[in-house]
Design brief:
Blueprint lengths: L19 E4 L5 H4 L13 H8 L3 E3 L3 E4 L5 E6 L9 H18 L17 H8 L2 E7 L10 E2 L8 H21 L1 H16 L16 E6 L3 E4 L10 E6 L2 E3 L2 E3 L4 E3 L6 E4 L6 E3 L2 E4 L2 E6 L2 H4 L6 E2 L8 E2 L2 H12 L3 H10 L11
Length: 353
């Protein structure tokens, strides 16, 4: 990705809170130097995770968790979205933020079940999926080397909603820069590239944006998982609003459960950390998650290029290229295979951050 340059930030960053600090025994290589694998609930069922979670510390204060070699894995910032110690101002911000989410989210069933906890039916999967509204920049499935597109959920939303989305992104970006400026700069550069190309639509958050996607969730209970398509060395930001009980954010790899309240903010390594959210037992939990996907931050290059002169087409998989050669250049599959065998395979162009 061509960097447009982020420049130096001239705005005042947030003051870091007094973090409770937790050092885990694991080295960072355990998380970042291995291939990301999905959580297998057949090998370790949800019940085992739940029983294990009873032994975890339930965190109510600002927390930083680092590996044994001092690499940050999680930040929990109490009242991070409120920015002030004035109770009247805090109440106003909390009411306004909750109202914004209520305006952005359509009417949803206030309960949800995670189909990964048991053998799911198609109907249950569809109902569970409908509990979130995901606006973002994504690549079409299987085509991460093509230009990213805005998700279809964005288009029905108005300019008023765009302003509400921008407020969440702007505040989160400021915290991101405060906590991890080098990684923030790469996210910022990606965001600015997409913005200059006019691809952000209502996700354009102005000069201070950095994330390219947001999910809005209501009472969203999800089982243990990793978000393997998120940026490996990057961050995902989450916060919630409303009055509720339950809905703990659990990180088994760090042995912590976060007791979030309205305005609290969490930055986590969602791609490499197992995490899950317990069911909401009372009230309503409105969640907001900001992120950028790996293939958007660092697009992959095709592995297979068309050998025909003046044809720039490239594909991730050989069968796709052979189909292209047949349709566009009249080369049958057998001849195409011979040509491709003689031609050296192009190296991967996608790097993990």
């Amino acid at each position: 990705m061509a960097s447009q340059g982020t420049g130096s930030s001239d705005r005042q960053l947030f003051q870091l809170p007094h973090f409770q600090r937790k050092v885990i025994t694991s080295h960072s290589s355990l998380f970042f130097d291995r291939r990301i694998t999905r959580v297998n609930l057949d090998k370790k069922p949800l019940e085992a995770f739940e029983e294990e979670a009873h032994e975890f510390d339930v965190i109510h204060q600002s927390l930083q968790v680092v590996t044994s070699d001092n690499v940050p894995m999680l930040y929990f910032i109490k009242r991070g979205m409120l920015e002030t110690r004035d109770l009247h101002v805090e109440e106003f911000i909390a009411r306004r933020s909750l109202r914004a989410i209520l305006e952005l989210i359509e009417v949803y069933d206030p309960t949800t079940k995670d189909p990964r906890n048991k053998e799911p039916a198609v109907e249950e999967k569809a109902r569970w999926a409908s509990m979130s509204l995901k606006w973002g920049i994504y690549h079409q499935k299987g085509s991460p080397y093509k230009p990213p597109q805005v998700s279809s959920e964005i288009y029905p939303n108005s300019k008023t909603e765009k302003l509400q989305v921008a407020e969440y992104f702007e505040k989160t970006a400021k915290w991101f820069e405060t906590l991890d400026k080098p990684v923030w700069e790469e996210y910022k550069s990606c965001y600015q590239d997409l913005r200059q190309q006019g691809k952000l639509d209502v996700l354009d958050q102005g000069d201070d944006g950095c994330f390219t996607s947001q999910a809005l969730l209501i009472n969203y209970s999800v089982g243990p998982h990793k978000d393997e398509n998120d940026v490996k060395h990057g961050w995902v930001a989450t916060n919630c609003w409303g009055q509720f009980e339950g809905g703990l954010a659990v990180f088994p790899d760090l042995a912590v459960s976060l007791k979030q309240e309205a305005g609290d903010l969490v930055f986590s390594r969602s791609a490499v950390l197992v995490h899950w959210v317990t069911p909401v037992t009372q009230g309503q939990r409105f969640g907001s998650t900001r992120f950028t996907k790996q293939f958007v931050l660092r697009p992959c290059k095709p592995e297979w290029y068309c050998p025909e002169v003046d044809c720039p087409k490239g594909y991730m998989h050989k069968p796709e290229l052979k189909q292209h050669m047949r349709k566009k250049h009249g080369i049958d599959a057998k001849r195409a295979e011979i040509i491709l065998v003689e031609r050296a395979k192009q190296p991967k162009g996608c790097e993990e951050m």
